[in-house]
Amino acid sequence: IMASGKETPRQKMIGMMYLVLTALLALNVSKEAVEAFKRVDEGLTKTTANFMEKNNSVYADFTAKSIANPKKSAPWVAKAKAVQSRANELFDYMAALKVEIVTKTEGEDSEAVVDGKVDTEKIQKIDDLNVPSEVMIGANNNGKAFDLKAALVDYREFLLEQIGPNHPNVTNSIENSLETEDVKQLDGTTAQWEMHNFQSLPLVAVVTILSKLQ
Question: For helices 31-68 and 70-106, what crossing angle results, to 10°?
């Protein structure tokens, strides 16, 4: 959501690790694979923080240009601020989901939640399978993953509208990053995006998936 442009080698490496670990979980391998998700989440969190710094610099540039030439820059500043607002809203929603999952699993006094953020290294019940599915999928397929998908679709369409039809590289990047279509699984069957990402996965994997989306 917050990122733009081509992936760095570090991002590609983290992405590959994420895919490998997801495949290992699908094969129901040992707890070591679940532990490894901590490292992936830490890498994603650092990458996101780096992009935040980069974005802050870009928005500072927008502000400077709006002061230097307010009439010319006004439409672009308005668009940039609208994108920033929508991005922050969705980012914070996913951060709150991570906190909700961890606190419902470990209690309100969980040491893994610090200042409204989840510290993956401090999660104790990393392999809990019940609460993440309960929160994200729900007993009657009415969990928050369905709301999240709707929010991602809405945000994706909003971004594409802001960009317009004449920037195919950016459009493709957004569509790929915010993909919410059904997913073809290893056994050849197709699963809903919500089920593929959030059903019957250990807590740390669900937190990592949310970090990846952020």
Answer: 160
Compute the C-alpha angle 93/98/99, nearest 5°. Answer: 95
Q: Please list the rounded mean pLDDT of every run of 10 residues in the chain (214 residues).
A: 56 64 54 75 86 90 86 87 94 97 96 93 90 95 96 97 92 93 87 93 91 91
Distance CA 102, CA 126 (A): 9
State the pLDDT at residue 127.
86
What length does the chain have? Answer: 214
Q: Which two tokens stand for residue 210?
A: 């949310």
Question: Do residues 152 and 161 touch, judged by C-beta distance below 8 A?
Answer: no
Residue with tokens 């073809």, as numbered in its chain: 184
Using the 8-state DSSP alphabet, how is residue 214 labeled?
-
Whole-prediction pTM value?
0.81
3-class secondary-structure state, position 7:
coil
pLDDT of the residue at 102: 97
Indicate the residue type of 139.
A
- 55, amino acid identity: N
Cβ atoms within 10 A of the Cβ of 24, count?
16
Distances (CA, A) of 132 to 52, 115, 143, 207, 210: 27, 21, 10, 9, 11
Please tell me the predicted confidence (pLDDT) of residue 123: 93
- In angstroms, the first-to-last Cα distance of the chain is 6
